[in-house]
Specification:
By secondary structure, the protein is mostly beta strands. The protein is 0% helix and 49% strand. The radius of gyration is 13 Å and the shape is globular.
Length: 124
């Protein structure tokens, strides 16, 4: 079991940038594929980005491709989401999630460990 804590959310204007971090407890962080998901009010939780254990393979939702970048630092037990050119439709609670022995997937049900979420609000 790994515990996840997100940080870095807040309010930003459209076109701006924001970076989210997710730090995991435990010493087996490199055993987990990591994902970022988001949930806007009244909508289902949706995939944003994922990385395999090494950071060498990354995956993005079409809606964020070219604007968001997922990276990880296994020495610091942390995964990052750099968000550029933010749009009002990016407004949501962002969650990081861990998939033990996973390869990086968009499937929400593959992730058994979730953070508490951090609010990102993009004003127009």
């Amino acid at each position: 079991q790994v515990q996840l804590v997100e940080s870095g959310g807040g309010l930003v204007q459209a076109g701006g940038s924001m970076s989210l971090s997710c730090t995991a407890s435990g010493r087996t962080f490199s055993s987990y594929a990591m994902g970022w998901f988001r949930q806007a009010p009244g909508k289902e939780r949706e995939f944003v980005a994922a990385t395999d254990w090494s950071g060498g393979n990354v995956y993005y939702a079409d809606s964020v491709k070219g604007r968001f970048t997922i990276t990880r630092d296994n020495a610091k037990n942390t995964v990052f989401l750099q968000m550029n050119n933010l749009k009002p439709e990016d407004t949501a609670v962002y969650y990081c999630a861990a998939d033990l022995w996973g390869t990086g997937t968009a499937l929400l049900k593959s992730y058994k460990n979730w953070g508490q979420g951090t609010q990102v609000t993009v004003s127009s």
